[in-house]
Structure formats: C-alpha cells, structure tokens
Amino acid sequence: MEYAQKEQIETPALLIDLDAMEGNIRVMADYLRDKKAKLRPHYKTFKCPTIAHMLIRAGAKGICCAKLGEAETLVHAGIGDVLIANQIVDPAKINRLAGLARHARIGVAADNAYNIRELAEAAARFGSTIHVLVEVDVGMKRCGVNSEEEVYGLVKEIQASGGLVFEGIQAYEGNIIHNRDEGVRRRGVQEMVEKVGGIKAFLEGKGVAVREISGGGTGTYNITGDNTIWTEIQAGSYVFIDTVYDELGLGFKSSLTVLATVIHKRKGVAVTDAGMKACTLDQGTPKIKGFPHMKLQLNEEHGIVADERDELAYREKIEYIPSHCCTTVNLHDRYYCVRGGLLEAVWPVTGRGKFQ
Description:
By secondary structure, this protein is of the alpha/beta class. The protein has 2 domains: 6-13 and 250-348, D-serine dehydratase-like domain (Lyase, Ornithine Decarboxylase, Chain A, domain 1); 19-239, TIM Barrel, CATH 3.20.20.10. Helices cover 31% and strands 23% of the residues. It has helices at 18-32, 43-46, 49-57, 68-76, 91-100, 113-126, 148-159, 182-205, 221-224, 243-246, 325-329; strands at residues 13-17, 38-39, 63-65, 81-84, 105-110, 130-135, 164-171, 212-215, 232-233, 256-266, 269-272, 287-288, 295-298, 303-306, 317-321, 334-339, 342-348. The strands form 2 sheets. Strands 1, 10, 11, 12, 13, 14, 15, 16 and 17 form a 9-stranded mixed β-sheet that branches. The protein has an 8-stranded parallel β-sheet with strand order 2-9-8-7-6-5-4-3. Helix 4 (68-76) links the parallel strand 3 and strand 4 (81-84). Helix 5 (91-100) crosses helix 6 and helix 6 (113-126) runs parallel beside helix 7. The model has no long low-confidence stretch (mean pLDDT 97).
C-alpha cells in the first residue's frame, strides 16, 4: 500500500505537524487544569472548526473569535459557546448576531450605551439572549472604556435591557504579549490586575456580580492565567507558535509551516514558489525549518533564499516557519495535516476571509 508523503504535497501548502500541535494543546490544558481561569481559545488564529472541537475536547470552555462571520462558522459547525471579543455595531450584523444567539450561547464585547441599546432591541426582535462583556482598555488604546463610572453606567444599561445579560469584563493585553522581556509582561499584567480589579471591586460594591473577566493571550497565558482575577484566557497562537512567540520560550513547539518547492537553483541562491501570497511578513520574515542560518526574502510569488553553502537542490521541498501564524493561516483554503512525514488529513480553513 502506498502512502502520501509530505514531499508529494503540491506547493505552496500550509502544513500542520499533528504531533507538535497536539503536544501544544496538552501543554496548555495541563497548565490551566488546576487554575481558576478556564481556556477560551481564539479562533482568529486557526480558523478551523475541526481544531476548535479538538480544543473543546481537551477542556476549553468555549471558543472566542474576532468577527461575527467567524462566530457563524463556529456555531454552524456545532460549537455551542462562542464569545465575539469585539464590538458588533452595524445594524445588519447586530440582527445576525441576535439571530445566531437563538442557536448557541453568544457573548459580545461592548463599550458604549448606544450599541447596548441596539443589541437589546435586536435580542427582543429575535427572542434571544446575548451575553455582554464591557470592554476595558488595559493598554491597547483601541476599543474600551477606562473609568469605574463609565463601566458602571454601561452595566446599568445592560441590566435595564431585556434580552441582555451582563457577563463581566473584556480586558485584553495585546500590547505586551510579544514583549521578549518576561519582567515587562509580568509588570504589565500586574498593572492590569490593579486597574480591572479596582473596577471589579467598585461594581461589586454597587451590588453587581462580575462573573467573568476575559482576556489573556499566548504570551501571557502563564501570568494572566496564574490565578489572577482573570477567569478566561483567550490564547490561540499557542496551538501553532510562530517565530515571534517561539523567541519567548513559552514551552510550545512550532507546528505550522508553509511548504515550498525550490524552482530555481544557482550558486549561492535558491528560489522557491512561495512568496508573500503564501506567508505573511507583518511580524517579520519567516525562518526556514532546519536551516536557521539561511536568510529568506519574499517577493509576491517567490522566496529568495541565500543558500551560501549550496545545501538546497532543485525541486527540493523546504518549510517556512511563519513569523505570524494568524495572518498566514488567513491566506490559505486548507491545512495539510502531517504525522511522521505522512499526510493524515486535509482540513478546510473555514474561517478564512470571515472578516465581516
């Protein structure tokens, strides 16, 4: 019987090393097993319901995502607890959100009263319940409110609205998760604990129960998730680990690569068929697996490898380790899942392009 070898996969192709990915899933599950915080992995990284179900089976309480379109793919695939860790403000999307909440437990972030009133009106139209987290800005300077009074005002708006449930606080520290200095990450988390903890205490003093504080990421999973006030950790990149996260020494292995073919070889240079349309550059240039000394430059359709030792051969297959796994995944329609060098499965990237 013949088996499909990794080297037989047509390129460019997005590969998952299943042993490495499953190991990463175990590491995170084992770490959080006896912690107060539960895992709610972020779908924006892997965008594949098959992986979402694997994470649920490994102990995740639910899945979070960035966009309504992603939430719809999750619910359609049978995931029953989804948090959209973002604001949904377009009226048409709010209607879709309220309709989706008829079929699953749906949470969403909000940071202004007008949006909360529109969510409530849509929930009433569809007879659904939407769980709302008030977003607090903990350093991203993106969305969110800042003061205790602002948060309390929004909580009162939610509590006065039929069809809405105040779930807690959304607070994500994306501004520190990639910092190579662990001390900086720890100090950043401590500052968040003080700010959000103060808001939580203020709300509880007003008789408001704060059930969830949701945030955290791969770069801070073992800090924010180490029995702080956070109850949910939204890490996602740990499943794959890109070159930026690998430099932090978090205990995970790179499991995602882009397979490329050498289509031209001359002395000191190899040219591949995988460029920027196959692997993103927003967090830096990818590395070549097994050849850390080689420098890679990406054009639109080609990779230019400085092969100074002439180690690569014409038509040889090589693998890039992306610098940013999330944006690279969004370039591809499918994963080629490999175990021990053999192709085991092909999974669709169902969430690709779901940016609405």
